[in-house]
Amino acid sequence: MMKQLLLGGIFFCLIFCGSGAVTPAKACAGYTLILGSNGSLQQELLTQILSLLISQRTGTTIQLVRYASQAELLAAASGHEVDLLVVEVNPAGTIDSRQVLDDSELVLLEPFGYDNAQVAPVFQPAALKRFPALKRLVNRLAGLIDDLALQRLEAEVASNHNQRDVAYKFLSEQKLIFGGG
């Protein structure tokens, strides 16, 4: 009798509480997050990495939007057309992204880990307010994508590998995503 009650309780928990498998967080499901890039290989790889990480871990739908330049991308972000982007902070010979960030309400997260330039994700405050867990999730990439890692990823794409597949492999190696791509 006790065994039947125990099995019944376990069955009830499995049906109503889930099977214990890792499932996407329901908080982000049904919302589309717009990721912007400037179209460079580096930006495309980084936005693919962000896209896969967020969609796989939260169930959020991601829309990738490409802009012609970093200046257009920053203008789109300042105009609330993009929820998340990657910027070069104080790179030599380009716009000072920090000044644009200081003039807007955009939130700069931890840099990815470059040696030559600081490249970091930037969020719209409304997106972070709506889904505060995204900041912590994206910050898990901080320090992981250094110059050597980026060169390896770019070389894989140059060897006729799909950017999404390269991004998926990287995230799997880092144990940031699991399962099907």
Summarize this structure briefly.
This protein is an alpha/beta fold and 181 residues long. It contains eight helices and five strands.
Structure description:
With 181 residues, this protein is of the alpha/beta class. It has one domain: Periplasmic binding protein-like II (D-Maltodextrin-Binding Protein, domain 2), CATH 3.40.190. Helix content is 47%, strand content 14%. Helix 2 crosses helix 8. The longest helix has 18 residues, at 41-58. It is globular, with a radius of gyration of 19 Å. The N and C termini lie far apart (45 Å).
Measured between the Cα atoms of the first and last residue, the distance is: 45 Å
Main sheet properties: 5 strands, mixed
Q: What is the CATH superfamily label?
A: Periplasmic binding protein-like II
Mean pLDDT: 77
Overall tally of structural domains: 1
Strand order of the largest sheet: 2-1-3-5-4
**Beta fraction of the residues?**
5-15%
Computed Rg: 19 Å
Instruction: Assign the structural class, choosing from mainly alpha, mainly beta, alpha/beta, alpha+beta, or little secondary structure.
Output: alpha/beta
CATH C-level name? Alpha Beta
The counted number of beta strands is 5
The number of helical runs is 8
**What is the CATH fold-level name?**
D-Maltodextrin-Binding Protein, domain 2
Choose one word for the global shape.
globular
SSE pattern: HEHEHEHEEHHHH
Uncertain runs: 1-27
- The CATH architecture name reads 3-Layer(aba) Sandwich
Helix proportion:
40-55%
